User: Which sequence fits this backbone?
């Protein structure tokens, strides 16, 4: 049962407010109810948001927590003066002190996706997503020379979500290939990958966890058996060691941690802007 309701109020998508808010809330052992209120970009919508927040406060008998990223001062004033929640305004906390320090006004841009049609970074991200989808799970060997990174590992070790995260968040063209019994018999990486070994990064996982994940997909199958998982993981790790491929275990790591480690190893310039 949730212990508190948290609102994320923004005049854009609300993703920035929610991302920041979740990072802060992760420091506390609690499971709040999340309510995102995007596109709160008029005074009327601000009053609607206030009514929702205050209604929740009355029902739950405790103040909601309200994270805001509002560029419009009139809209923010309605929230500040009317809501009965604990207000955490990101612009007021961070942007305005920076305006003083830098001696310049911020753009007060609504949302981080403004003018995306004119953004080269956005176009690159879309191209990276298209590439990663086309090269998911070894679907295609075409254009691998254009890949920024090629992930390898046994089935269900985290390759697909990591590839898509790298594409969506960092604009990297990420292909991924499953290591299968035929590869283990040959004791070599898939032939199509051999010319691109410098781009390859391996993912592995504890057999016990892999068995749990596979049982969710194919219960009580040979594919999901602990014996099969132990064999595949052992063979995959041995192959990566022989090939001199950098690799890590995804067992206890988040997608964000996995992606950051890959960037550090293969594309460290992506961590510096």
Assistant:
């Amino acid at each position: 049962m949730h212990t508190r309701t948290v609102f994320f109020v923004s005049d854009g998508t609300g993703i920035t407010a929610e991302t920041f808010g979740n990072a802060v809330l992760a420091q506390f052992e609690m499971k709040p109810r999340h309510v995102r209120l995007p596109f709160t970009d008029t005074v009327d919508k601000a009053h609607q948001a206030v009514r929702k927040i205050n209604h929740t406060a009355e029902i739950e008998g405790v103040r909601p927590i309200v994270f805001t990223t509002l560029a419009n001062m009139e809209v923010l004033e309605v929230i500040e003066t009317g809501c009965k929640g604990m207000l955490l305004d990101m612009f007021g906390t961070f942007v305005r002190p920076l305006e003083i320090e830098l001696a310049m006004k911020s753009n007060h841009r609504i949302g981080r996706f403004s003018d995306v049609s004119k953004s080269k970074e956005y176009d690159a991200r879309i191209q990276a997503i298209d590439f990663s989808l086309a090269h998911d799970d070894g679907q295609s060997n075409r254009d691998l020379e254009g890949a920024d990174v090629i992930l390898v590992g046994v089935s269900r070790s985290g390759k697909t979500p990591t590839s898509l995260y790298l594409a969506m968040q960092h604009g990297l063209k990420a292909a991924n290939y499953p290591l299968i019994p035929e590869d283990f018999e040959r004791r070599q990486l898939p032939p199509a990958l051999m010319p691109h070994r410098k781009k390859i990064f391996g993912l592995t996982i504890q057999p016990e966890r892999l068995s749990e994940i596979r049982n969710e997909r194919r219960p009580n199958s040979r594919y999901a058996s602990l014996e099969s998982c132990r064999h595949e993981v052992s063979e995959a790790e041995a192959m990566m060691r022989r090939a001199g491929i950098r690799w890590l275990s995804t067992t206890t790591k988040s997608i964000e941690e996995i992606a950051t480690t890959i960037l550090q190893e293969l594309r460290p310039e992506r961590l510096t802007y």
Summary: Residues 43-60 form the longest helix (18 residues). The CA atoms of residues 138 and 177 lie 4 Å apart. The mean pLDDT is 90.
